[in-house]
Inverse folding.
């Protein structure tokens, strides 16, 4: 697959870092951002690249040439094939694609050239092909969903709604936003919108929401823009720690698996109503610390209220949406959530018979942890299960994880503490 890198922006918000070069040429740990991206592409066999340029574009051309030049940083050839499209007149962030459509005859990657990322792009492409989408966008949670556009999908990843940050949103929502990484079909370029400047999101992608033709691929991998000096500093710190490469799903991941009730939110028995959901003091700070580390934050929870007929799947989703919204307001997020809807005991009024089974996913069984490990390439021996019940500890031990227990009790756990915040701090230290 070809890759189009959009490198035409001026980067006015970060001009204090470097105003005499294009934003994609700003260096992170001594190497231009665009070179970091090209190295990521090359390492996965993606070597046919088109770069769209505009503001100070000659700086990019002089540095990379046609891709056969020697890198001033590494002393090695870039080892890719590069073509350029010089946007003499501003065409919007998608206008150049229509000028290039004769070169884009197969599905292609479309990436921003000023973001720092380390992604398993081949896994992304496999998802796109399996789903047969016209377009697939990469989504992820972030620390500020309240002022970001939201992508709302069904259980299969089909985008149902795409809400810009200016649009009215639900009271509670899943924290998933567009990361600016795309795979597009050339069919999208057959009819050019009647406008001089074409906005990719608003004019090309958002109209596909609800059609079943736009998919979202959710990933916990590292991708950050550096649009402000503050974000640039954070990116540099993360790169120094090797965090981007550690988060690449080609590499084994580490996770902190979290119980829900009594660990993240206050325990009230069976939680049946979103109005009764309340975060425990310090829980959001603890999850923030996980987000800043090399660990994934993944919730593992038993929810027998589904099998008992006391809560519908939709109502449980709303409870979890509230959790994600409240965490997001504090700058925290979870990477994923897995729940068991089963219950082994029968005899409840209104119960769901097909869910009244003995399963391998209800803690202390390790099924949900195994499912997460398969999805995210997790090394369980380097991961933790944290909870406030014996079932949590046993599930973690059964999966081969290290375990931490909140409260008083001895169940063979590796750590014991009074709160999630305390335990996370000790794990990370």
């Amino acid at each position: 697959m070809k890759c189009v890198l959009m490198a035409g922006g001026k980067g006015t918000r970060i001009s204090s870092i470097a105003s005499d070069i294009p934003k994609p040429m700003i260096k992170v740990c001594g190497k231009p951002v665009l070179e970091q991206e090209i190295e990521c592409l090359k390492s996965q066999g993606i070597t046919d690249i088109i770069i769209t340029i505009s503001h100070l574009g000659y700086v990019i051309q002089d540095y990379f040439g046609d891709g056969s030049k020697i890198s001033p940083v590494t002393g090695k050839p870039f080892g890719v094939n590069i073509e350029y499209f010089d946007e003499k007149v501003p065409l919007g962030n998608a206008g150049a694609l229509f000028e290039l459509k004769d070169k884009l005859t197969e599905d292609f990657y479309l990436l921003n050239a000023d973001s720092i990322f380390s992604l398993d792009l081949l896994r992304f492409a496999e998802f796109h092909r399996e789903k047969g989408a016209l377009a697939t966008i990469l989504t992820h949670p972030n620390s500020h969903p309240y002022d970001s556009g939201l992508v709302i999908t069904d259980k299969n990843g089909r985008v149902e709604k795409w809400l810009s940050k200016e649009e009215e949103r639900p009271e509670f929502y899943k924290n998933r936003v567009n990361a600016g990484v795309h795979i597009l079909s050339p069919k999208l370029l057959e009819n050019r919108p009647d406008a001089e400047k074409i906005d990719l999101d608003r004019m090309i992608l958002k109209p596909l929401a609800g059609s079943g033709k736009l998919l979202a691929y959710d990933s916990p991998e590292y991708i950050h823009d550096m649009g402000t000096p503050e974000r640039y500093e954070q990116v540099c710190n993360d790169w120094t720690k090797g965090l981007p490469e550690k988060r690449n799903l080609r590499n084994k991941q580490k996770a902190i698996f979290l119980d829900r009730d009594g660990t993240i939110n206050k325990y009230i028995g069976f939680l049946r109503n979103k109005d009764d959901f309340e975060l425990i003091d310090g829980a959001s700070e603890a999850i923030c610390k996980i987000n800043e580390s090399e660990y994934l934050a993944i919730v593992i929870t038993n929810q027998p209220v589904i099998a008992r007929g006391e809560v519908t799947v939709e109502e449980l989703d709303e409870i979890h949406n509230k959790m994600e919204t409240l965490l997001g307001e504090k700058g925290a997020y979870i990477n994923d959530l897995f729940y068991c809807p089963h219950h082994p005991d029968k005899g409840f009024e209104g119960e769901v018979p097909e869910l009244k089974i003995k399963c391998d996913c209800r803690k202390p069984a390790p099924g949900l942890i195994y499912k997460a490990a398969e999805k995210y390439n997790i090394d369980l021996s380097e991961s933790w299960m944290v909870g406030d019940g014996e079932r949590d500890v046993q599930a973690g031990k059964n999966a081969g994880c290290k375990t931490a227990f909140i409260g008083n009790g001895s169940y063979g756990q590796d750590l014991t503490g009074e709160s999630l915040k305390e335990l996370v701090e000790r794990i990370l230290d």
